Amino acid sequence: MSEPFEAILGHTFKRPSLLKEALTHSSVAHSHGRKQGSNERLEFIGDRVLGLMMAEWLAERFPREQEGELGPRLAHLVSQPVLATVADSIGLADALSVGPGEFKAGLTKRATVLADALEAALGALYLDGGIDVARGFVRRAWNDAMIGQVEPPKDAKTALQHWALKRGLGLPAYGVTGRCGPEHAPQFTVTVSVGDMDGSGTAGSKRAAEQLAAEALLARLPS
């Protein structure tokens, strides 16, 4: 699937091995007894590249806004839900290589896996094609998410806290209510409660799961 995915990324790789690595989940490497060859290193690079690309783009698009407004915008655009949506829109799941057991378990549909793979693909683009190629892909793939921002978004946990305190319900309570998956790719389920209402979220880190839980509960609450 690497060659068709090159067309989606808009770049022909001089080093195809980089793209292959970006599209290889750690479960493949572990299933073959190897610790290298997965997309984790490229994800690390892509995460930094994406942050720079978004900071640059936001500064251009909102020249009068300061850090206090730009920060939440950036956090939203690089968040797991947005990355997973972008990954789904470009068909990343079909190009991703995962272990046989993980594929049967639906690993390629998990938001955290898709988000990580998207960052890895961006890291590969940057290393193979340079900053201009990476910028071009980001501005195409994230265009809908960017133009959809009118007002700076609020952090879900902060928004939930304000909602609860405004109604005298006290601070939201978060707790880990589940954990699954292998040691190298754990999934945490966090439940947040406010009064007699609750919401849950599952992600590859407790912090991300807390945000998803807050988003889930906010979606159910009256304004």
Descriptive overview:
The chain is mainly α. It has helices at residues 2-9, 16-22, 26-31, 40-61, 67-77, 80-89, 92-95, 100-104, 111-129, 131-141, 143-147, 156-166, 206-220, and strands at residues 173-180, 187-194, 197-203. The chain has a three-stranded antiparallel sheet. β2 (187-194) and β3 (197-203) form a beta hairpin. The longest helix is centred in the N-terminal third of the chain and has 22 residues, at 40-61. The radius of gyration is 19 Å and the shape is flat. The model has no long low-confidence stretch (mean pLDDT 87).
Shape estimate: flat
- How much helix, percentage-wise, in residues? 55-70%
Q: What is the CA–CA distance across the termini?
A: 45 Å
The major sheet is characterized as: 3 strands, antiparallel
Category from helices, strands and their pairing: mainly alpha
If helices are DSSP runs of H or I spanning 4 or more residues, what is the number of helices? 13
Biggest sheet, strands in spatial order? 1-2-3
| Sequence of secondary-structure elements | HHHHHHHHHHHHEEEH
Specify Rg, calculated over alpha carbons.
Answer: 19 Å
Mean pLDDT: 87
Low-confidence stretches: none
Q: Based on DSSP secondary structure assignment, what is the total number of beta strands? A: 3
Proportion of beta-strand residues: 5-15%
